[in-house]
Structures are given as C-alpha cells and as structure tokens.
Amino acid sequence: MTLQDCLDHCHILTDVMAQKLIEARSTHVPVFNVPHLVDATVLYDTARSLGIETVILPMSHFPNLSFSMRPIENFGAFDPKAGHAKPLPIGRDKETELF
Questions:
Q1: How does 64-77 read in b/e, with b if 16+ C-beta sit within 10 Å?
Q2: What is the pLDDT of residues 33-73, one digit of tens each?
Q3: What residue numbers bound the domain in which 25 lies?
Q4: Which of 1, 67, 84, 88 is the most buried (most CB within 10 A)?
C-alpha cells in the first residue's frame, strides 16, 4: 500500500460520509472521542465542512466530570476553578485514595 492509496481511500471515505450525512439531513454529529483514527477524523472534518454542528464527547479520567466541545481547537481548554465542589483536604498521615 502506498501513500497515494491511503489518500485515495480517505477521499472515497469523505465522499461516502458526505453523501450519507446529506441524505440523512443530519443537523448534528456526535463524536465520542477526540478524533484520532481515520474514520472519526474524516467524519468530523466532513461534518464541519458541510456546516453540520459537531459535538466531541471525550472520555474523562476525572470521576463525575465530563467534557464536551464543539471545535477540536477547544480540547484541553477548561477552567479547573469553575468546579462547584469544595477542595478535599488530604492528610499527610493517610494513603491517598484517588478513585
């Protein structure tokens, strides 16, 4: 497989996904992780180029905390001070239980 084969595959995938999104009259596209594999990346980019709203719902490693973003450029931009929970004091004499 050559680089050109990969590019051709991505172009075909983009055409097929665009056709499906248009036929379904999609208004929103949820992406359930930050796009990093070819199918999710092409879906995200195709939806954005068609003007369809995208919502990225990445996994969170923080208990009881979830994130969502519309453009990928917002990934990692959150205000940790915006939380409503009070800080939990951790005693030095106890073993820390994170989860």
A1: eeebebeeeeeeee
A2: 888 888 889 999 999 999 999 999 888 887 777 778 888 88
A3: 3-74
A4: 67
| Distance from chain centroid for Cα 63 | 18
H or E segment to which residue 54 belongs? strand 53-56
The whole model's pTM is what?
Answer: 0.70
- Whose structure tokens read 């248009």? 22
Question: With b meaning 16 or more CB within 10 Å and e meaning fewer, what string describes 8-36?
Answer: eeeeebeeebbeebeeeeeeebebeebbe
Q: How many domains, in total, are found in the chain?
A: 1
